[in-house]
Amino acid sequence: MPIDPASGPVSHFALYGETPGADDPEFIHIEDIQVRSSLYDWRIAPHLHRRMFQIVHVIDGPASVQIEDRQEEAEGPCAICIPGNVVHGFGFSARTLGFVVTVSETLLLDTGHRDAHDLFDPLLAEARLISFRQDAARARLVRTLLEQMAHEFQARELGRNAMFEWLFHALLMAIRRQIATERESAETKGEDRETFSEACRLIEDHYREHMTVSAYATRLGMSQPRLNRLCHRFAGKTFLDLLHDRLALEAQRHLIYTSATIEMVAYELGFADPAYFCRFFKRRTGRTPSEFRRERNGGR
After folding, report:
1. What whole-number distance in Å separates Cα of residue 243 and Cα of residue 214?
2. Dihedral (CA of 2, 177, 48, 24) sign
3. Which residues are 62's β-sheet partners?
4. What CA–CA distance (Å, rounded) separates 135 from 181?
5. Quick one: which of 161, 37, 26 has its CA closest to 15?
């Protein structure tokens, strides 16, 4: 259910729907998404928590997420990490499954976990939505950790608080690793896109020279199979197909916009044998150069 950001003033809640109580440096809470959201017709209006860090993990189903003045549509599995004093709201559906974990920010600054502070900084610096839809194994791990946390929260067995804290930090680490994976994927994609662009520039500069694909790959500092994989990823074609597409395009331009003979066009494009050029052109276009020129000139 979508959120209406203009529904009224932002409320300050310890937990949504509860008035703030005394600060508790050991405050930890977990509940099923449906438990509280069903009380409010699946809509959690924009609000904030002071000095509390919250993870809303959607295992399955849709969620409308409002962070300050930004709104996103999400689908589980995903996690929304919300530091204290950040305005946030949600819209769920009756089929949305998941958990809400809330802890005191003091717990995150516990000196017993000082070595992990730098790792967790990206979670505490800003609110963010992290998708697990491309990593089923990590999504299962997060779900298992949350289910065990819910059990510990209810069971009150020996060492309950310590176990809950250990599980919570394991949950933080799983989410932090997912952020790192997303970042690495984005960086790799950006680097690959730049390499593909460089490959296209090389084609533009050298297509008349009839260099081998291996020679292009060497100039790009990669193997021929990797170059082909890169081209398939961004263009759905092999490098040779892209190279031949560029040659055929230039041949068509010459045939349409100049009066050069077929032999002259062939030599201009680096073909040593005009007959081979004609065979190449027909393979790429389905017509001979003469047929193509006649069609474009209205049959003359």
Report:
1. 13
2. positive
3. 75
4. 10
5. 37
**Contacts for 103 with CB less than 8 Å, ≥ 6 apart:** 27, 28, 29, 52, 53, 54, 168
Of 5, 185, 182, which Cα lies nearest the Cα of 81? 182
Instruction: List all residues 6 or more positions away from 238 whose beta carbon is below 8 Å from its beta carbon.
Output: 228, 231, 232
Residue-level pLDDT, tens digit, the chain, 300 residues: 445 444 444 444 445 555 444 344 457 888 999 888 888 899 988 888 877 889 999 999 999 998 888 888 989 899 999 988 888 899 999 999 999 998 887 776 654 555 555 677 777 777 888 889 888 999 999 999 999 999 988 888 888 888 888 898 899 999 988 888 776 555 556 678 888 888 999 999 999 999 999 999 999 998 999 999 889 888 888 999 999 999 999 999 999 989 999 999 999 999 999 999 999 999 999 999 999 998 887 755
Collect contacts of 280-285 with beta carbons under 8 A, ≥24 apart: 280/244, 280/247, 280/248, 281/248, 281/251, 284/244, 284/245, 284/247, 284/248, 285/248, 285/252
Q: Which of 234, 237, 254, 256 is nearest to 245 (CA)?
A: 237
223 residue type, one letter: S
Q: How many residues does the chain have?
A: 300
Half-sphere exposure for 200 (CA within 13 Å, toward CB): 13
Q: Name residues whose C-beta falls within 8 Å of residue 72's C-beta, 6 or more positions apart in sequence.
A: 64, 65, 129
Lookup: tokens for 104? 């005191």
Alpha carbon distance 199, 201 (integer Å): 5
CA-CA distance, 201 to 64, in Å (whole number)? Answer: 42
d(CA 153, CA 176): 23
Burial readout 138-151 (b: 16 or more C-beta within 10 A, e: otherwise) = bbebbbebbeebbe
| 99-104-107 Cα angle (round to 5) | 110
